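Appendix B. Chain record.
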Amino acid sequence: QVQPVESGGGLVQPGGSLRLSCAAETLIFAALDIKWYRQPPGKGRELVAEIDIDGKTNYADSAKGRFTITRVNAENTVYLQMNTLKPEDTAVYYCNARRFPRSTSPLDYWGQGTQVTVSS
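Structure tokens predicted for this chain:
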């Protein structure tokens, strides 16, 4: 069982920065693809950034140039550095961990989310 735990959310002014963390106490952390999603108020969940087991990254257009996703397997943690935040970045941010068992379909594990509010 994998249980991602998000932290680092909060209230920040436009133009500010936050660093979100996604940690999971598991021996297989290095074998997990990790994705950050967000769900703005009244809207659906959308992919923000992802990093695979090889460290390859991918970003939503809205995050490119402002957000950076990194992983530190020795810490069992993936970070999402968010700079130049905008009010439209306000959302609950969720961490998704995906595991790839050999004989079954991929398994997804979700954290509880962390609130990010960008407002003056």
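Further analysis of this model is presented in Appendix C.
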